[in-house]
Amino acid sequence: MKKVLHGLAALSFLFAGSTAFAQEATHAANHEAEPTHFPIKAPREQSWSFAGPFGTYDKAQLQRGLKVYKEVCSACHSMHLVPFRMLEELGYNEAQVKAFAAEYTVQDGPNDDGEMFDRPGKPSDYFPSPFPNDQAAAAANGGAAPPDMSLLAKARGVTRGFPQFVVDIFTQYAEGGPDYIYSLLTGYDQTPPEGMEIAEGTHYNPYFINGKSLAMAPPLSDGQVTYDDGSPQTVDQYAHDIAAFLMWAAEPHMEERKQTGFSVMTFLLLFGVLVYLTKRKVWSNVEH
Amino acid sequence: MSGGHSTYTPKTGIERWIDARMPLPRLVYDSFVAFPVPRNLNYAYTFGGILAIMLVVQIITGVVLVMHYASDTSLAFVSVEKIMRDVNWGWLLRYMHANGASFFFIAVYLHIFRGLYYGSYKAPRELLWILGCIIYLLMMATGFMGYVLPWGQMSGWGATVITGFFTAIPLVGTWLQQLLLGGFSVDNPTLTHFFSLHYLLPFVIAGVVVLHVWALHVVGQTNPTGIEIKSKTDTLPFTPYATVKDAFGMIVFLAVFAYFIFYIPNYLGHPDNYTQFNSLKTPAHIVPEWYFLPFYAILRAITFNIGPIDSKLGGVLAMFGAIAVLFFVPWLDTSKVRSAVYRPWYKLFFWIFGINAVFLGWLGSKPAEGWYIPAMQASTLYYFAFFLVIMPLLGLFETPKQLPNSITEAVLAKNKGAHAHPAGATAAPETKG
Ligand code: HEM
Fold this sequence. Notes:
The complex is a heterodimer. Chain A is mainly alpha-helical. Chain A contains 9 helices and 4 strands, in the order H-H-H-E-E-H-H-H-H-E-E-H-H. Helices cover 43% and strands 4% of the residues of chain A. In chain A, the strands form 2 sheets. In chain A, strands 1-2 form a two-stranded antiparallel ribbon. In chain A, strands 3-4 form a two-stranded antiparallel ribbon. In chain A, helix 2 (59-71) crosses helix 8 and helix 7 packs antiparallel against helix 8 (235-250). Chain B contains 16 helices and 2 strands. The interface between A and B is large, with 61 and 69 residues. Protoporphyrin IX containing FE binds at residues 55, 58-59, 62-63, 65-66, 69, 80, 94, 97-98, 101, 104, 139, 142-143, 146-147, 149-150, 198-199, 202, 205, 269 of chain B. Chain A: Pfam families: Cytochrom_C1.
């Protein structure tokens, strides 16, 4: 225990010195081929229906995203904070949600005999996880557990740097997560620069935030998921749809938030003007 | 108020009855209605009121959050997400509280800079200033512990790094760290300790705020000229003058606050905090909340040993020293003149200090590598030099500008030509215009 502690302490305090040292060492060894800062490429900004002060989710897009999640990503990625009942917000009615939930099998119990039993899912259930625990998930995926998807769209954000981060306040840029997910999913087609070493069992992706390659193989291919609304069945479209869906999963109250924001801002503006005029009136008879 | 007599006259029978037994209405009247304020206060003086509002916002949203929050490592992260998803208006409460902490700090920094610019810390306001520094310290402790509660990656790793500072203290350091953590590393006892203290400290802050306001009402407010109140024409009654001006300042501040809550609620947070804490997985860069970043840069600027003090202890001392030095400002500034308005050189160094502080904050978000290290060192040097060298020496060498004789004279000189009459608070309505 003591050793672990000392290790931790050393790690946290000496990282100032050590990163600088490691930095120089790697710089000296090789230049372009082995990057030291990730992601290698900044995410590509997309236009999203939910961006901006009046942004709303595109329900058809979310439904397509749900289909991609269900048919592809859910094989590896859990989404344990999202209950089926929430799917009504995507435009499904109660019966549809019930039917959707019933396609899943969930463990319940114990019953009166003290036994656990399987039953069809109910709207109040949460999306079941594909693996019993993180260790099993990692073991099945070459050592890297696929992260839970409930918050993924808010849990990734590539630093924007100065002066962009100041500009972002005024443009209300808050779509770093979906931009990242889209870029990652469509970023597998690039070949690593000559001389770069890619670890066995990992896949080069210049958009990955934590390194040059990741354990997830390209999960999408053209035509993989059948859309019944006539949308193109391409990786690019799939990537947009799943990214939008994940933003909704992470921030289901976004529309309500922005709408409330409009009322609050309008109120504060009007109230502000009134108070300002009152202030002018009150102070108009004194020099200040 | 500066030695004034109470002008409160109870009007109704009930008011007289209460006034004879516990004169609370009198206290409120004397403090927030009749209290004389300098007539030339500008908007930099509205941040005190804004801070009071932010404390109330934090306490109210916090108390409601606690109704749904679970301080157990296996539940904390999910309980916050349940607040965000299932609790009615939970997303609003949580975003108000998280962004509220940031805006609390924005207000306190502007409030402190106001004090540094107008020399508010000088006699007889030393205690007032020190009480303010104590509030700031308590706010930092509260903010740090609150950030641990959602139990995300930055919560846990931030706590690991920051409590780790304590181990640098000789002899008692490790003991102190373990006392804080409730064990050897960040775990369930840490969360329960921090939760308890995070609930307690805001009320301690409220108590110190009462002392702060009490001290203020004994010595009165400063003003942009830095000249003390000399006659009745220098002042206006708090209500309606300061009340309405403060109200306007607050609404503007709240509008910016609302903009962040409703449109970019995660802008000031860290994405990694949306991943549950995992003590086996270190994030690529551990960064504290933005309001600690200048101090984080100072901590990491010390990369060298100074005699028997190794760089680790040196960094921790520099960081705590950067806060401690604030307490001594009333005695470090040797100038006879209070306000920077009449101190051309101080004004220059003050603005450099402001820019330097922002730059330090930016450096704090950067890894300690490459050119960032010498930049952190240079910036840290200026930070300390401002307080320890510039402040004491400027007072001795600087020639201040000619001071006006009184607040009234300064106001009249400024407005010369526009209106020529020194109308007081009691000016008849027909003179306005
Ligand atoms: C001085 C005033 C306060 C400050 C500066 C402050 C600061 C913070 C911060 C920075 C967080 C983390 C927010 C996040 O990232 O999610 C937090 C969380 C929390 N605070 Fe406070 N707080 C204050 C007062 C209070 C009070 C008075 C209470 C309770 C009575 C409270 C209860 C909570 C709870 C339950 C959480 C966890 C939920 C969450 O993370 O949103 N806070 N606080």
